[in-house]
Amino acid sequence: MSDPEKSIELFRQDGEEFRSVRASLRNGEFVIDTQDMGKSVEEFWGDSDYEFWTIVPKEAWGQLLMALSIEFLANDPSATDRLRDICLTHGVPHRWDRWV
Questions:
Q1: How many other CB atoms are there within 10 angstroms of residue 85's CB atom?
Q2: pLDDT in tens, 12-71
Q3: Does residue 87 sit in helix, strand or coil?
Q4: d(CA 26, CA 72)
Q5: pTM higher than the cut 0.70
Q6: DSSP assignment of 25-65
Q7: CA dihedral over 62, 63, 66, 72, signed as positive or negative
Q8: Nearby residues of 42 by Cβ (< 8 Å), 6 or more positions away
């Protein structure tokens, strides 16, 4: 049985030049995909839309989390608090603890 798909739009630009960027969890993969539409797409690609994506398989999620930590939390003295806040905001199961 496959995991249910979860998806969220990360960015949207409407108008003559349209772009939508989505993040999804589907079939054990983390996917970020982009769809472009508009005059410049038609001129460059000769088609009404252009889609592209990056897929990270489940077995590489740990590596992805470490890479994202380096990119977005390195050199941040509040990294522990930021991670906890992100988990709380987005309903991510986590454990926070301390020595007393």
A1: 11
A2: 999 999 999 999 999 899 999 999 999 999 998 988 899 999 999 999 999 999 999 999
A3: helix
A4: 24
A5: yes
A6: EETTEEEEEEEEESHHHHHHHSSSEEEEEEEEEGGGHHHHH
A7: negative
A8: 48
